[in-house]
Structures are given as structure tokens and as C-alpha cells.
Prior knowledge:
By secondary structure, the chain is α+β, with helices and mostly antiparallel strands. The protein has 2 domains: 133 residues, Diaminopimelate Epimerase, Chain A, domain 1 (Roll); 150 residues, Diaminopimelate Epimerase, Chain A, domain 1, CATH 3.10.310. The protein is 23% helix and 39% strand. It is built from 7 helices and 18 strands. Strands 1-2-3-4-6-7-8-18 form an 8-stranded mixed beta barrel, surrounded by 4 helices. Strands 14-15 form a two-stranded antiparallel sheet. A hairpin with a 6-residue loop joins strand 7 and strand 8. The termini are close together. The mean pLDDT is 96.
Amino acid sequence: MRPFTVVQVDVFTKNRLEGNALAVITDATGLTDSEMQALSKETNLSETTFIFPRDAATEKAKGVRVRIFTVAEELPFAGHPTLGTAFVLRGASGAGEVLLDLNVGSVPVWYEDTAGQPSFGEMRQRDPEFGARHDAETIARVTGLATRDIDTSVPIESVSTGLSYTIVPIKSLAALQNLRIDLQAGSEYLQKSGGKFFYFVSRETVNPAARLHARMLFYNGEDPATGSAGGCTAAWMAAHGVAAPNERVLIEQGLEMKRPSEIFVRADREAGMVKHVRVGGHCVEVMRGEITL
Length: 293
């Protein structure tokens, strides 16, 4: 039998059993790609991460090697797995920074500690790549949305900071809370237009302190918190005046599925270019154990 230690954490929340759950295999040495995919199906979470320890010099220069899997595929980058894995790696050391080596390259996570509060980490994502813009009628047709519910005062736009999301602004909180979409038709459209997933946002929120209310529906159901989309949305907000440059704002997500999450995002804008995208949140450990294969 081969034992593998697993730690499960809740990300983008201060409270256990809220936010987005993540399983972290702390030493995945010896696991094959097919075994990692099967284990990700076993946990049945949005993502599961696998840490591959290396020598100290390599980890200092490049970061700790981490791979990220959903129930169906490996991802080059994802937000809550990055924060959650960094939290597990940090442990009780109190390190101010944890560097991860992901499929998109090195991603640093910095920590801001407040007495009596769960750990808060903030990751630096890649500078954004702005892709296609989409007209409301087309998006309505391929998703099943009503055109009248789409907010056309800001663009529907595909953005990537490591993983591409097509950001769809919705006029009202009520329309977003009652969201129903055609996942198959939407996925087919995204494959042709360059987005990986849709991210639906509204400037009407439940929490008055939040700037956006968000939802992300995909092949594994609904995601309680989507950190990679948060980075894309931070860039989108900075580009279109929804948030001021370097203003840290709150995106609320997961309320409809009873997993409330708080994603804190910001991005700079210099000489017309959006850069320095950062996504942060709290993290708490829920359980740890051992998987045997």
C-alpha cells in the first residue's frame, strides 16, 4: 500500500465549511497522471492539488512544484488552489512569502497576518491578456440568458491572467441569483471564441461592502469561489472604470450554494496598460488524513 497525506482547507473564507474547499496532497511523488486525475474525481471538489517536493535550491529559485486538477482535467492555473496550497506549505512557519511553481510559471503568495484572524494571502497573477469582446445578443443566444438581463454599459470580454474567462456583466442581482444557462451550448461557443469558462458578475450585491456579486457554473456544477476569474475580473474592472487602479475591492461569490466566499482583488493601470493583478483571501484548515492506493 502507498500512503499519501491529504490536507483539506477552505479558501476565500474565515469560516470553516464555507468558501471553496480544496484537497492538497502534500507529497505526490510516485503518482501518475492518471492516478492524480482519479484522485481528483474521488475528492469531487472543484480542484485538487499535488505537491512534488524538490531540493531546497530549486524551490528557492523556481518555487515548490504544484499541479492542479479538476474532476475532468489538469489546469495550468487556478486561484483558490494556489492560495490554499500556499497556506498548507506555509504551515506554522509564519513565512511572509510562499513561491509556487505552476504550469504557468512561478506564482508568489504574500501574507498579511492580523492577530486573532485566519491567514490572509495575496497572490500575484500574470499580467492580463485581453481577448475577444462579445455582443449581448450572441451571448444571450448561446447561454440561454435574456438579452435584457445583460448589462451593456460595460463590455462582455474574455480576459486571461493564466486561465481565460469570458466576463458577462448582468444588470441585476435578482437576474444573477436566478441564473440558468445552457452549459453545452455555452461551452461550444467558448471553445471557438477563446474563453475557458464564463464568469457572470453584477454590480448589485448582497454585502454593501462588495463591488461585485459573481457566479461561475461549469461542468462540475457551481464553483463557490473562483480566484483565477477574480484576477481576470480585477483587470476588467481596472480597464473599464468599475474599480480604481490599485483599489482592493471585494467580490462575493458562492452565496446561492450556501458556501459564501470573499475574494479580494486589485490591479494597477499605468499608461493605459493594466498590470500587477493581485487576488487575495483568507484560508482555514478543515481536516487532514491519509489516502492509500
